[in-house]
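Input/output pair, single chain:
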Amino acid sequence: MSPIRYLHLDVFAGSLGGGNHLGVVTDARGWSDAQMQRFARWTDLVETTFLLPPSQPDASYRVRIFTPHKEIPFAGHPSIGSAHAVLETGLAKPLDGLLWQECGAGVLPIRVEGEGLSRQLLLKSPRAHVVSQGADAHPLLSGALSGIGLGQLPPALVEGGRHWWVAECADEASLRAWQPDHAAIGALAQATGSLGVCVFARSERPDYQLVVRALPAGVGIVEDPASGAANGLIGAYIAHAEPDGPLARGYVVSQGREIGYNAQLLVRIDGGVWVGGRTHTVIDGQLRWSLT
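Output:
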């Protein structure tokens, strides 16, 4: 049982401890699917990732992403955190400012901007499109959005690797004070094969321009403190609906404060939608885990 370097990360953190947890096994060569799943179940984190040599010639590394219950092909904060771990451990170096991550969704580019504590990593989100839109797009939508006043963009079901219902709230204060009906959101998610609802509001604050709350009841999560995938779809929807608007080139997101976190995500809209931010290494240690 040779020790393996293991990192516990704080991803998309606006301040230390404000982001999303991620565990990274930096060398999973020799691990079976069942062994990865067993370890992910033991960590009981929303996601745990396992780094491997790439199998595609254009990839910098390969990552497998596990929840405590199953493997998933792609997720935002595990991708950003895994890229941070790759750089911290020297497993790969960026080429022309990019890492190329191989995962279940293909080989995806990740921008590397800056170095050290100021380094920002941004993942190019899968191409997205609007499936349906309007407050009457589904009979269960009004119940899932009960208690909030809608903003200028109509609610929409957006697909880009995953399906999310996206809705704009009229103002930041209302969104932060909203008490969601989680059962209604879960019913909508189940009926439409979506993760749930992500709601955003515009802000006049100098340090962020959008507030986001992501409620993925479709996968049994009450509220996500920092969601790269959800923010990628919101960015795609804004770029589609307001191509010449004030947010059309990008913005900064505040997420998670309603549940005790303080995440900050960057969204850049430049030849696609890029979502990222900073990652902090909180624990850097040796993993001793029997594979037998």
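The chain has a mean pLDDT of 95. The radius of gyration is 19 Å.
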